[in-house]
Amino acid sequence: MDYLENYYNSFDEDKRLLSKHGQVEYITTMKYIHEYLNGAKKARILEIGAGTGRYSIALAREGHSVSAVELIQHNIDVLISKLTGVEDLEAVQGNALDLSRFADGTFDMTLVLGPMYHLYTRQDQFTALSEAVRVTKKGGIIMVAYCMNETVIIRYVFGKANLRDTIDMIDENWHCKSTPKELFELVRTEEIAELDSRLDVERLKLVATDGSTNYIRDKIDEMDGYTFGKWTEYHLATCERQDIIGISDHTLDILRKK
After folding, report:
1. DSSP structural state of residue 176
2. 2-149+177-257 belongs to CATH 3.90.1150.10
3. Reduced to 3 DSSP states, what percent helix, strand and coil does the chain have, rounded to the nearest 5?
4. Which residues of 183-193 are buried (b: 16+ CB within 10 A; e: fewer)?
5. Whole-angstrom Cα distance, residue 256 to residue 233?
6. Per residue in 94-149, pLDDT tens?
7. What are phi and psi of 7, to 5 degrees?
8. Residue 98: CA count within 13 A, CB half-sphere
């Protein structure tokens, strides 16, 4: 908790998502949210790990009824400061592992866009996903974001010449060993599939929400509007390709509750 609080008290998540390279993740995630809302005008949406409200506020301003649960009080304070009073949005402090404030089958769509980054055991990951599924209506949609392992190995360990400093944090299969001190839990596609197999859900899609973007993030940020638009087109045309998923920084697992 202290590691997370220290990190998010000083990290500007909104700024990251507003950068050109960060916009790719946001644009992609919103595309699939809208796709699976399927034209609904007043859906009940839960965002678990809402951060400072980038998604929750946008969806509330589209007319949806949003409940935003966030662990870090600083983030809740920032979220609330952005509200104009017209949004149908309730922001509460809470933990992804315990959503007992919500009844079974309450929400049309449940977004888990941050908690899986910071849960370090399979049991905690399963508990969080089970709670997200529980509070979602039958036939409803659950979207879960993950941080992926290979981008850290390629971009950080080798790309930034950090091998000697990090080798003790990597197992014999080149999987990063995460702890709360490192902040982020890194996974592979087969680990996501294993978690899904234990839940009463069907997978609809697994999407690379930023794909190759962060490998050339400096170039992305320097792009003019036309070129960035074309990069976004390229990304959206390829983000469901399974040969790209594993090297994305972030993925979005899209599930339907049976």
Report:
1. B
2. no
3. 50, 20, 30
4. bebbbbbebbe
5. 26
6. 999 999 999 999 999 999 999 999 999 999 999 999 999 999 999 999 999 999 99
7. -65, -55
8. 4
